[in-house]
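Please, structure for the following, as tokens.
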Amino acid sequence: MISVILNRILPPNVARAVSVLNADKLYEIRLRSNSFVTVGYGSSYYYLSPTGTVSLPSGAIALTAEDIFKTVERACDKSLYAVNDRICQGYLTLDGGIRIGIAGETVFDGNRIKTVKSFTALDIRIPHEVTGCADDIIRYVKNGDVYSSTLIISPPGAGKTTILRDMARIAASDKPIVNVLIADERDEIASVYGGKPTLDIGKNTDVISGCTKEFAFIRAIRALKPNIIVTDELCGAEDTDAVENAVLSGVSVFASVHAENFRRLSDKPMFAGIFRNKVFDRYVVVSLRKGPGTVEEIRDADFNIIYSAGAV
């Protein structure tokens, strides 16, 4: 399905070049106006040539501003107006969980973003389901029938969303039944399309898509009674407050945050309350060292290391 979507939206020369790549290793396609196409392939970035990947721009595919605009048009079925609210947030989500980050000229109406025009770059993120990738993590997260609140810490592109999705799948397929709620702000975890998740999130999972974590958490706890809430990319005080309130309400939370390592995370002021109140029982540090999803260490609520890759 993903290859069909890429063939539909990409410029033909880019689509042909992408088709010769190993789909299992392709994570990202970057299109820039008046510049060269690059791809996230395996654990590195490369230029894209008509015959595959190359290390230097010589011979790589170059695109124009018109190529970028036409790609956005195809991605939204030639109706930019219908998806303008998403474009204003800087991204589009397509069937299969493909997400397109958008750069361009921002047009304001007072303090509100009215639209984005003159697109200059697109970052096409391609999801990968890796069933079982969270198995080794779950051993440290589950205690009997109870799942500990867990924060996945990783730099961008290291596989945190894939791990969160697999954690949700495992918990939501458990016996006795565990009710899981995914607060999918950017439609990346469950990738709901036409009212149906397009990725495997387990048998007993509900999804609230396309809204803030604050909104989703409050409504979910009141109306859907989840045992676990899963959400991606905590990035502000509103997000951390929503998580803390959920945990204080007796709900476990699986979440993620961008940081290179635990020390870098501890430098972020917005996490001071999270640390002080021991909101999370487990901290899982993930890297790209051996490819996406490399688990470097796991810490407990008191920040003690209970697993270290260096000790294996």
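The first strand starts at residue 26 and ends at 32. The two ends are 38 Å apart (CA to CA).
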